[in-house]
Design goal:
This protein has about 400 residues and is an alpha+beta fold. The chain is about 50% helix and about 15% strand. It contains 14 helices and 13 strands. The chain has a six-stranded mixed beta sheet, sandwiched between helices. The chain has a four-stranded mixed beta sheet with strand order 3-2-1-7. The protein has a three-stranded antiparallel beta sheet with strand order 4-6-5. The chain starts with 7 loop residues before the first strand and ends in a 5-residue tail after the last strand.
């Protein structure tokens, strides 16, 4: 084998794998065992090794055994057998010396986190921008996810994960600065897309939108915006930031200059395939609809109502179970869509809330709509999940219903 390719390569970013002479070792089924945790710790510590007391504290802090040191010896013995069984030669093993444990290898082990740090350190001392860019790209390619994600509950792994995550963010930001100056929008889009896939942050989605707009790919940029809004609503229960909303307005302005005739604009404004039921839109779009509706009511004198539906547990309390919310929200969304008219509008706000605008109606009709939604939801209700609602007149802050209602799935 060429000296340029280490015999043993270890990856800890995004997953844990050990590759010996080009073959991935079969360790997947034992990643969370104490033996494998010892291996991961010692590989990470490298030549420093780890004191046996520190290993005991890390692995057996909740152990009620009277002899944790003996448990450690047994664990290390099991680990040695695992390594041999996985296909490593005997010289790759765990050794003890002066009350410390080390991972022993005849030649240096290639460790992705170590190389990742080395490339970033080289970038910080690079003599030219070209050299800095090359080093940053090498580091960026090594980061494939959080550090040892299966050990997210371990203190040492959590600290290490935060360190590498922040260094990766800094790396992407530096790449963005250089590539923007050079107009390398396609290359930057690749970097930003990887970053957004690994960590669902608005910052990376905004960067993707910027790249696509610079490349005049406005439809693709709008798709990224919609994706970012969905992630915020469904995963983080948050509103879009000012930066993301600013991109929305930039996209709106950019889209207007790309069409030349009224007919072409009309084609773009129309729904591709008009669907039955109410019109569903993103939360930022819903805000615009609400404000437009409020202004129209001032002129026409008609009435409209805003309904807020939110999922609860079977007792009407806040639904804290994210999995139950994920199961129930699509069912309530379907019930709302099927129960409203085509001229009504609704959106999902967060993981467990829905906002509805009923146009040109009165209080009595709101009650009829509410009963239809309840009836429709009961046909396919999520087990143990109820929902409440309140009713407001559009354009005012007054609550028209003093007692908000709750529907219990156990009731007939």
């Amino acid at each position: 084998m060429s000296e340029a390719v280490p015999a043993l390569q270890v990856r800890m970013l995004g997953d844990f794998t050990m590759t010996y002479q080009g073959q991935v070792l079969p360790l997947k089924n034992s990643l969370s065992t104490k033996a494998m945790r010892v291996l991961q710790l010692l590989l990470y510590r490298g030549e420093r090794g780890m004191a046996r007391e520190a290993l005991v504290d890390s692995l057996f802090c909740d152990d009620t055994s009277a002899d944790p040191l003996n448990n450690l010896k047994v664990t290390v013995s099991n680990l040695r057998r695992i390594l041999v069984k996985a296909g490593l030669p005997p010289e790759f093993t765990v050794r003890a010396k002066s009350k410390r444990y080390y991972f022993a290898a005849p030649k240096p082990v290639w460790l992705d986190v170590t190389v990742f740090d080395e490339w970033l350190d080289k970038a910080s001392t690079a003599g030219t921008q070209d050299e800095k860019l090359a080093c940053l790209l090498e580091a960026e390619s090594l980061y494939t996810g959080d550090f040892l994600p299966h050990l997210a509950g371990s203190d040492w792994a959590t600290v290490a994960a935060a360190h590498y995550r922040q260094r990766y963010f800094d790396c992407v930001q530096q790449l963005a600065e250089i590539m923007k100056e050079r107009g390398q929008w396609e290359e930057l889009l690749t970097v930003a897309t990887r970053a957004a896939a690994l960590h669902h942050l608005e910052e990376w989605q905004c960067l993707r939108i910027d790249c696509l707009m610079k490349m005049e790919q406005y439809q693709e940029a709008k798709a990224v915006y919609d994706q970012a809004v969905r992630e915020l609503e469904e995963e983080f229960v948050a509103k879009p930031s000012d930066a993301l909303v600013q991109r929305f307005h930039q996209l709106s302005r950019a889209g207007l200059v790309s069409y030349e005739t009224v007919h072409e604009l009309t084609d773009q404004l129309q729904e591709d395939e008009p669907a039955r039921g109410a019109y569903y839109c993103s939360y930022p779009s819903f805000i615009d609809v609400y404000r437009t509706c409020s202004r129209m009511l001032e002129r026409t004198g008609q009435s409209a109502y805003l309904l807020l539906y939110w999922l609860t547990d079977s007792h009407g309390q806040v639904l804290e179970d994210a999995q139950k919310a994920a199961q129930a929200a699509p069912k309530l969304k379907t019930a709302i869509s099927c129960s409203l008219r085509r001229g009504d509008v609704f959106t999902q706000y967060g993981r467990d809330r829905f906002l509805v605008i009923l146009m040109g109606t009165n209080r009595e009709n709101c009650d009829l709509v509410d009963r239809r939604i309840v009836r429709k939801y009961k046909e396919d209700a999520a087990w143990g999940v109820s929902f409440r609602h309140t009713l407001h007149a559009v354009g005012t802050a007054e609550l028209d219903l003093d007692d908000s209602r709750i529907w219990h799935p156990i009731e007939e």
